[in-house]
Design goal:
Layout (H helix, E strand, L loop, with lengths): L1 H12 L9 H12 L13 E2 L11 H19 L17 H11 L6 H13 L5 H13 L11 H16 L8 E6 L1 H15 L8 E6 L3 H5 L9 E6 L10 H4 L7 E7 L11 H13 L4 E5 L12 H4 L4 E6 L12 E6 L3 H7 L3 H11 L11 H9 L12 H16 L4 H21 L14 E5 H9 L1 H10 L4 H10 L1 E2 L1 E2 L9 E5 L5 H26 L10
Parallel strand pairs: 1-10, 3-4, 3-5, 5-6, 6-7
Antiparallel strand pairs: 2-8, 7-8, 9-12, 11-12
Helix pairs in contact: 1-20, 2-20, 3-5, 3-6, 3-16, 5-16, 6-16, 7-16, 8-15, 17-21, 18-19, 20-21
């Protein structure tokens, strides 16, 4: 009876069709499994969803600043019109704005966010050399949302400030020649959508073309090229757990193939959460020197959690599109804040200029409604136009309150010279990782400087071999379905992880977000994983006649 029950349970985990689901669709099935089916579960047991990357922390100081700035801007709006009890206000006035802001700061001394705003204005004036009055006016008009975004790609001073933030976090002390443009977008998801679309519209990628993906990778990068919109062939560059999630030179050499038009990667990686080492970055930059036509896209959303992070954008700026989202670092997934950056002298503009005459004629007709010289329209401005189907380009651009919050987040980081906020987040997520692995029963190696730890991968093959040897792993691979462990964790322990296979990992595994639960929750997850491992050891011993000790690890 016990064996029949086990077989039936394993059968439930291997439902037909699950292999075709994305990890986020499979997550919904896991949540359903966690919602019912275990008779012995207490009614008040809570579900631990460690599959989501949404952090449970957020940056409070720049948010306080946002609300205080909003109060000042409202006062300015009401001041610009004669008093109207019906609730009608006007645009803020530039004349005397700085003096009135100083008065507002004095009147609200000690209120949360006021000191931050005072420091932000001083930083903009004294460190960035910008007009504090112009900055205040742009912020007031922006937070009131009383005008269209002008320029539509990004507000003028906002682009300068966000650009400085990207320089600090993505480039650091690495030498960088030239300037870059920034397009403010609705999070990293919009950035991905816009880039794929505009590359297609401008014939930089066509159906049947080949691109390379750095695997494992955020699932949409795997799924989008398959859509009938694109129909791209994909070459995978695989980074394995056995190599510390780094790419070997043999894998990177795939980029030397002239058929590969572009290389897309997430750095630090998702889900392993490991940044590319310096040697690999330089190796790619050297390949680009041999292949000056190669387009690179690096999605660096987790770079701000890394120690001494340097983006591929810093080493190969003219070939690289930089995507960065504020969502994870500032706990701002609901704000939808992201950026696309391109060097002002870039391969995308050059490739467009070299297109055949008939294609150039088509593109001239596509963009002639927004400029008298469509041929001179930069790729990044084509992104802006295409994001609103060209015809609505005059109303393009990220909403201005979103841009204001993005600027305040950027200034908060720029002003935090001791990196107090960054170091606090690193301590938080690394303590959670330690708690998880302590309960699993494995001492994890935290000596790798490339570990970022926003996520961690519970790799069944790698951990099983480390704990109980290769024979146990071979038995496990033959005796269990790839998703069985995930469904059993969901059904029996109400723990939801995302399948690593859906991100392109080579072994059956589960992605654990270290950002969205409390330390005690990760201990509970670790204990649940440990209990299932011990049960697998018992099954192994019973079926093979071996005597592995489930209480000890190698």
């Amino acid at each position: 009876m016990a064996k029949e029950k086990d077989d039936r349970k394993r059968g439930d985990m291997a439902q037909p069709g699950l292999a075709a689901l994305s990890p986020f669709e499979l997550k919904d099935e896991l949540i359903k499994a966690a919602g019912g089916g275990a008779v012995e579960r207490p009614a008040n047991a809570s579900m631990l969803n460690a599959g989501r990357g949404n952090p449970n922390f957020l940056a409070t100081i720049p948010r306080h600043g946002f609300w205080q700035l909003g109060l000042f801007a409202m006062r300015e709006s009401e001041r610009s019109f004669a008093y109207m009890p019906e609730g009608v206000g006007g645009f803020p006035r530039r004349e005397g704005l700085e003096e009135r802001f100083d008065l507002f700061l004095r009147e609200n001394k000690g209120v949360a966010g006021i000191d931050f705003l005072r420091g932000a204005v001083s930083y903009v004036r004294d460190q960035l050399g910008l007009s504090s009055g112009d900055f205040l006016y742009e912020m007031c008009e922006g937070i009131l949302a009383s005008n269209y975004p002008v320029p539509d790609r990004m507000l003028k001073l906002s682009e300068v400030i966000v650009g400085q933030y990207l320089r600090r976090e993505m480039i650091g002390r690495h030498p960088f020649v030239g300037e870059f443009d920034v397009f403010a977008v609705e999070g990293g998801t919009a950035a991905m959508t816009y880039i794929f679309n505009t590359m297609r519209e401008n014939h930089l990628i066509k159906p049947g073309d080949t691109i390379a993906l750095g695997m494992p990778i955020f699932t949409p990068y795997i799924e989008i090229p398959r859509l009938n919109d694109y129909q791209l062939n994909v070459v995978n560059l695989n980074a394995g757990v056995e190599n510390g999630w780094q790419y070997t030179k043999e894998e990177l050499d795939k980029l030397r193939d002239p058929k590969v038009k572009a290389f897309f990667l997430v750095n630090p990686s998702n889900p392993p959460s490991v940044k590319m080492d310096d040697e690999s970055l330089q190796y790619i930059a050297d390949i680009v020197k041999e292949r000056p036509d190669l387009i690179l896209l690096t999605d660096d959303v987790y770079g701000t959690f890394a120690d001494d992070f340097v983006s591929l954008f810093a080493l190969a700026p003219k070939n690289t599109i930089l995507v960065y989202s504020y969502s994870k670092y500032f706990g701002a997934t609901g704000w939808r804040l992201g950026t696309i950056a391109t060097h002002r002298d870039n391969v995308l503009d050059r490739l467009i200029s070299e297109l055949p005459k008939d294609v150039k004629k088509q593109l001239h007709e596509r963009y002639e409604s927004i400029t008298t010289e469509p041929e001179k329209l930069k790729f990044i401005d084509r992104l802006v136009a295409d994001s609103r189907t060209v015809a609505l380009n005059h109303t393009a651009g990220l909403s201005t309150p979103q841009q204001v919050q993005m600027v305040l987040f950027s200034l908060f980081s720029l002003m935090d010279t001791p990196d107090a906020y960054k170091n606090a987040l690193k301590r938080l997520i690394r303590k959670r990782k330690q708690a998880l692995y302590e309960e699993v029963g494995i001492a994890f190696d935290d000596s790798d400087p490339n570990q970022v730890d926003y996520y961690t991968i519970l790799d069944a093959e790698y951990l099983g071999e480390r704990m109980f040897g290769r024979e146990f792993v071979d038995w496990q691979l033959k005796s269990t379905q790839p998703t069985e462990l995930l469904f059993r964790l969901a059904r029996e322990a109400r723990v939801v992880l995302l399948p690593g296979l859906g991100f392109g990992t080579q072994h059956a595994s589960g992605r654990v977000s270290l950002a969205n639960l409390n330390e005690s929750d990760y201990r509970q997850i670790g204990r649940a994983v440990r209990r299932l491992i011990e049960e697998y050891v018992e099954r192994f011993n019973a079926e093979t006649g071996k005597k592995l000790d489930k209480t000890k690890v190698k």
